[in-house]
Amino acid sequence: MYAIVDIETTGGHASANGITEIAICIHNGKKVIERYSTLVNPRREIPVYISALTGITNEMVQNAPPFEDVAHDVYHLLNNKIFVAHNVNFDHSFVRYHLAAAGYELNCSKLCTVRLGRKIIPGLPSYSLGKLCRHLGIDNESRHRAAGDAEATSQLFSLLLQKDINNHIPQALKQNSKEQVLPPNLPRKDVDALPSSPGIYYFHDEKGKVIYVGKAKNLKKRVSSHFAGNNPGPQRQEFLRNICHISFQLCGTELIAFVLEAVEIKRLWPRYNRSLKRFEQAYSLYAFEDQRGYLRLAVDKHRKMTGSIYSCNTLFEARSVILQLIDTFELCPKLCFIQTNTEPCIGVNREKCACEGIEPPEAYNKRVNAAIDELNNALPTFAIRDAGRTDEEHSCLLIEKGKFYGMGFISHYFDVDNLQQLKNHLTPYPGNDYIKGMVANYATKFPERKVVFG
Question: Has the keyword Glycosyltransferase been applied to this entry (predicted)?
Answer without folding.
Answer: no
